[in-house]
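My current task is to audit a protein record that another person submitted. Alongside the sequence sits a line of tokens, each denoting a local backbone shape. Please read both lines and tell me whether the tokens look consistent with the sequence. Do not assume that whoever made the record got everything right. Thanks in advance; the entry in question is below.
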Amino acid sequence: MSKALTGSQLRELYLGFFEGKGHAVISGSSLVPQNDPTVLFTTAGMHPLVPYLLGEPHPAGKRLCDCQRCIRTGDIDSVGNVSHLTFFEMLGNWSLGDYFKEEAISWSFEFLTSPKYLAFNPDQLSVTVFRGNELVPTDETSVRAWMKMGIPESRIYRLPIEDNWWGPAGQTGPCGPDTEMFVDTGKAACGSACRPGCSCGKYFEIWNDVFMQFDKTAAGEFVPLKQHNVDTGMGVERTTAMLQGKASVYETELFAPTVAAIGRLTGRQAGQDPQTDRAFRVVADHLRSSVFILGDDQGVVPSNLGQGYVLRRLIRRSVRFGKKLGLGMGFSASIAETVIEQYRNVYPELERNRNRIARELIAEEEKFEKTLDRGMAEFNKVIEQMKAHRQAALPGRVAFKLYDTYGFPIEFTEELCREDGMTVDIAGFEKAFEKHRQLSKQGAEKTFKGGLVDNSEATTRLHTGTHMLHRALQMVLGDDVKQKGSNITAERLRFDFSYPTKMTPEQIKRVEDIVNDAIARKLAVTFEVMTLEEAKKAGAMALFAAKYDEQVKVYTIEGFSKEVCGGPHVKNTADLGHLRIVKEEACSAGIRRIRAVLE
């Protein structure tokens, strides 16, 4: 019998366990990745640590553990079942070129089975390992390590790359075999082929240890990394549900206050029927995700691009399901208060940004509410006509009208059509959208999926250039200018910053001149490791939340700027070339965006 822990107790127990194994407890990073053009949000605990997995020294050392906030919307349509979430917390422990498979497996087994920790019966555990392919051999080291822990070979499953290989999510980057741990729930097997990883519910995945030992190249080769790393992941919500013997993550205390708040506002209760349960869960999940995105210090707000588009979709989907439950105007801000109260002690940025969270939720809800009923009337009218003419696919031009006139995200329209057993002509929608884009001369931003941070020489130069641009903007526009996001590729940098009005040509020229003058002066770029408190006392700009005593890197550009940053950077500004600002434009309310290149 395992321990029935709350999410807070699990979080505390996990971090304390690994701290006792010599790991530094570090703060989780922003939900908005910095300098990573490949993902819109932090989707896994390893994202913020990619530079260190590739060899950059971490200021806290080679053994780390944390609890990372994550957003994933790739399977948003599954939200509403017992376990799928768009926002979740991921516990992780990390070895950056230190311990490897044997130690990681030993500690995983200890934490799962020791009476001091989760106290699972070892006889309930089954594990999977990578069985190898033509490029990489079977992970027999992990097999031997599990057998040493007492797991018999009959409960060790060698599975293919589709099951037991992690990353890269894109085409290149750190990757390697993993070993996954499952708890047998006691349910009957679904057949002779039943095994960990099948979807029948007999086996519950509770932990994943990834052994990053390769770097996948653009040619598809697996080149050994210069250091072997361990990257593990244990989801707080799913593990808490398992420990408490709950059938759904929504039955745990992590969601109970939010579900209860929805019930008070509607006069209804979850558990009445599957459709009502689904609506409760979608509203609870999507608003929790929205609170954490809006509450992030990076300041994402609803929009039609990038992170803002994902946020808008979450809020609008919650409004639609809220209406099914009978929730009235303004419900989102009310429920958000419940989420903030529950998490503000763990994530103080929610308290800091409480007013912004409420303001943006109310504004977005009002915007959508104005057109939702008319849009649904239009949709229903078209659907009736399609049924009368035995049509199975909603025309793309109609889908675009719902998007452009009524604010329906295309995914929203697809979901509505699925409920009626129909599809959407996506090609037609994209054609109409492209025509609209050309006519309005508005750039459409591509949503990248997967992949990892690029630490090439070109992006490293642009990373340093971004820091210099930030400081120059403060020198020209005032110290209130703060970074609100950045995106760096090998070709250019994109920098979002707080400023209420359009920059003048003179201001843009002045910023360019300040940066290029500093480049011409060949200033040394150095770094020191110190606590966050020491960094602030030394005058370093620190944009992101961390514990006051946490070790951080402070990069100094001689006589020009001092900033907390993980790196990497060039060693001298002379390495940069010439910075040119290509474009300055509005990004969202109170946020400007600069695109620049180094020539």
Summary: The first strand starts at residue 24 and ends at 25.
